[in-house]
Design goal:
about 150 residues; 4-stranded mixed beta sheet
């Protein structure tokens, strides 16, 4: 371990002691990724698209707590709070004015569980169908030109 120099002491005095994995803590609303059961993006929280998966996770993991992003409007967090109350899971709202994150809510333990897949995969089959239809109509238009 190297000795601290004057710059290190000044930086710690201004910004505080640097925490391990600080970038991870910023992204996951103050907790580490290895503790997360499920993470919802801000878009998923606002559209309530991840509520079913969140409810399943709350049923399977009763000893967790829910952390919500304070930058998301209160009206979008009511369903998540209702689920947490239903399953007796404590919840907290975190607002970090210095840093921004794309995470809207996190269901987490106080210890590491190392779950591999914590994000909900968004289904987008409708967009693919629309693109296929556009391609078909474009192809049919081109074919009609040469007929």
């Amino acid at each position: 371990m190297s000795k601290k120099n004057v710059d290190d002491y000044i930086t710690e005095g201004i910004h505080g002691v640097r925490l391990p994995k600080e970038d991870e803590r910023i992204r996951f609303l103050g907790t580490l990724r290895e503790r997360v059961v499920i993470a919802l993006t801000i878009g998923q929280v606002m559209s309530d698209s991840g509520l079913e998966k969140l409810e399943e996770a709350m049923q399977q993991h009763p000893g967790t707590r829910l952390i919500m992003n304070g930058h998301v409007a209160y009206r979008f967090l009511t369903e998540e709070k209702a689920l947490a109350t239903k399953y007796n899971i404590p919840y907290t709202t975190i607002t970090n004015e210095e840093n921004a994150t794309d995470i809207g809510a996190v269901l987490t333990y106080d210890y590491a569980i190392d779950k591999e897949e914590i994000f909900i995969k968004e289904e987008e089959p409708e967009e693919e169908n629309e693109e296929e239809k556009k391609e078909e109509t474009l192809r049919s238009k081109i074919k009609n030109w040469f007929r």
